[in-house]
Each structure stands twice: as C-alpha cells, then as structure tokens.
C-alpha cells in the first residue's frame, strides 16, 4: 500500500472511533426486542421522563406578556362576542372612514381582528363618545358602587405592524 492509502484508512478509522465516542450508548433508550407497537415502554430508573432545565427557559411558556389593566381596575369577564367583549386597554384604532359628515372607526381587538365602530358603540368597559380625524374618544363606564366618575380617553390612529395589504 502506498503512504497516501494508509493515511486515508487511518483518518477514516479515527473518524469512526470519534463518532463512537460521541454517540450515546444508552441501552434504556433503545426499543426492547419483542415489545408490541403502540404499548407504553416499561418504566426505567427514577427520574426518567422528567425535564431538567439546566438553566434554559421552558420552551412551552409564552414569551409575550399579557396586557395588564390599571392596578385599581376591576376585571371584567368577556361576556359577549365582537367589540363589546374587549377592554379599552386591549383595543387599537387602526383606521378612520368618513362618509359625508359621519365618521366610522376601524378598531383592532386583542384577537387581531378588525371591527367597525361608530359613536355609541360599546366595549366591555367603555363607550365611543366621538370620532374625529385624529382618533376616537372613549368614555369609561365606572363600575357601580365604586363612586368613580366617567373618564374620557382618546386613542389616536395607529398603523398596525405586520403585513401591508
């Protein structure tokens, strides 16, 4: 054999040995001969089937923090469908439409769906008072017994990030 052939065989042999050293040889992870398809594997040593984070984050926990209401706000359950099921903090004004003298707003809810609203339309905790060229004025609905007064909130027109159509 030539020197080149010996060098190639040596490097191939060393590569196989390196792969064997890296590959795990855990016999418990292999399928036992004679097991039926679809049956649960037999229990192994203690601690099997548990997740060890080793300092990493849980991949099944959401990274998006939910919007939080004001600290003194009372949670309103989502009792209906459509625009009336969203809190004022969860909506965004994404469009304004003018037809003659009447203004209509396009409002995006927390579900990323768009809803058409006009003055007098109700949210879970507010009512639309007026719509102008800059945005929408909402009036908060105070909860009975709290003694709070209705408060006006203005939300300006915002462009929604995402795909442009």
Q: Quick recap of the structure?
A:
The protein has one helix spanning 3-22; strands at 92-99, 102-108, 114-117, 126-131, 135-140, 152-156.
Would you give an account of this structure?
The chain has 165 residues and is an alpha+beta fold. It has a domain at 82-156: SH3 type barrels (Roll). 12% of the residues lie in helices and 22% in strands. The protein contains one helix and six strands, in the order αββββββ. A hairpin with a 3-residue loop joins strand 4 and strand 5 (135-140). It is elongated, with a radius of gyration of 31 Å.
Relevant terms:
165 residues; SH3 type barrels; 12% helix; 22% strand; elongated
In terms of topology, how is this protein built?
Blueprint: H1 3-22, E1 92-99, E2 102-108, E3 114-117, E4 126-131, E5 135-140, E6 152-156
Question: Which value, in Å, is the CA radius of gyration?
Answer: 31 Å
Helix percent band: 10-25%
| Arithmetic mean of pLDDT | 75
Number of H/I helices: 1
Profile the largest sheet: 3 strands, antiparallel
- Output the strand order for the largest sheet: 1-2-3
* Oligomeric state: single chain
Uncertain runs are none
């Amino acid at each position: 054999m030539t020197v080149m052939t010996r060098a190639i065989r040596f490097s191939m042999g060393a590569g196989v040995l390196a792969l064997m050293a890296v590959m795990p040889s855990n016999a418990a992870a292999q399928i036992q001969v004679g097991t039926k398809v679809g049956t649960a594997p037999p229990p192994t040593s203690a601690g099997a089937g548990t997740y060890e984070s080793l300092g990493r984050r849980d991949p099944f926990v959401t990274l998006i923090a939910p919007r939080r209401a004001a600290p003194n706000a009372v949670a309103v359950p989502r009792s209906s469908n459509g625009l009336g099921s969203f809190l004022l903090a969860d909506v965004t004004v994404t469009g304004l439409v003018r037809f003659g003298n009447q203004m209509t707003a396009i409002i995006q809810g927390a579900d990323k769906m768009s809803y058409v609203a006009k003055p007098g339309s109700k949210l879970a905790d507010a009512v639309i008072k007026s719509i102008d060229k800059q945005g929408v004025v909402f009036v908060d609905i105070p909860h009975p017994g709290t003694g709070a007064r209705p408060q006006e909130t203005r939300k300006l027109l915002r462009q929604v990030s995402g795909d442009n159509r």
